[in-house]
Protein: Cysteine--tRNA ligase
Organism: Anoxybacteroides tepidamans
Amino acid sequence: MSIQLYNTLTRKKEVFEPIEPNKVKMYVCGPTVYNYIHIGNARPAIVFDTIRRYLEFRGYEVQYVSNFTDVDDKLIKAARELGEDVPTIAERFIEAYFADIAALGCKKANVHPRVTENIDIIIEFIEKLIEKGYAYEVDGDVYYKTRNFAEYGKLSHQSIDELRAGARIEVGEKKRDPLDFALWKAAKEGEIAWDSPWGKGRPGWHIECSAMARKYLGDTIDIHAGGQDLTFPHHENEIAQSEALTGKTFAKYWLHNGYININNEKMSKSLGNFVLVHDMIKQTDPQVLRFFMLSVHYRHPINYSEELLESTKNGLERLKTSYFNLKHRLASSTNLTDGDEQWLNKINQCHDAFIKEMDDDFNTANAIAVLFELSRQANVYLLEKNTSENVIRAFLHEFEQLLDVLGISLKAELLLDNEIEELIQKRNEARKNRNFALADQIRDELKARNIILEDTPQGTRWKRG
């Protein structure tokens, strides 16, 4: 079986064939670190982390690079408003980003390059574009000559004339053509700046990714990814810069995830429906948010609501309940028979079905449906009078490896019967002492571990959910 992925560049599914056998060079556009990330930023972090995990699961060595934009207009504005310098603000929100994505189950990239640490290579890149006739300087600003790149518009599938119709020259810009874009911006009074051949200034937004992708992954990379909103102009401009410089294909495959709506409306600060991950995960299990993001195909739009999140939570609990019921049977049963080929075959069928769905453009929604089928099969098996240690271990292994591909953790450990009894005794004592907050806390903890309590006149009974 081979992986097929949808390439934004060609607008069709293609068989994935990396440049080097068994190695994948992957660049994912990271955040501008002037604030905490919102759930729109969380979606590409989760989606492309999952794609990376799946490629590794299929045996590829993935070199994964994701940048930080740690200087730009938004950071300069935030620094002015807060009375702090740009590096201080950037550092604070880079640390917050790492904390948030770790909570969401995302692995760190192999490299997280920062713009401010790569100014020299960006300047060198711009100098070469000027030498090749693709850029020009005006009063300390440097612009890219868009019309000099014959294939401009090939990623967004727009002609140069269509693009020009919507282009404007903003107040203060000195570019010769509305389609031209800034590679270097001359510093204004009091702004953070670096020395360059054109005077003090800082890089434009688009040039940073071209320069850093080339530095860490080479002239041509396998996969370039990001949110759908980056297709134009950001990724279009990256192609123009990189291919003008090297004369080579910049990225073989382009992947873009869809938008997020909040209660069927586009997420925006003006509508007051802007959801920060930093705030959300204080109230919601971040694993549930990750599972929710993967419940829809990555290229499709996804609608966020409290009701849908609650439904996702229940679905994830169903999978975890099956897993921990298997763990309980393995730990407590004394009547485990030898292997059963029929059930092992059913587990293998689920394994193959999961791969089939993920091979089809990383269809996590259908892959999750396979996990629910695995859960159903496990629940049926546990109803049997005689169960096999081999089959139970096979079910557990399958749950563990497939959920790990999706970045879902099975951290909660199985509570033994005597541990449950001890917690119930503590709860009873708390209730006796009228410490109802502690009693409720213990009850909720047990519920989270799939232990259901029933208070009766004869005492508290419990069962596994």
The longest strand covers residues 221-227. The mean pLDDT is 92.
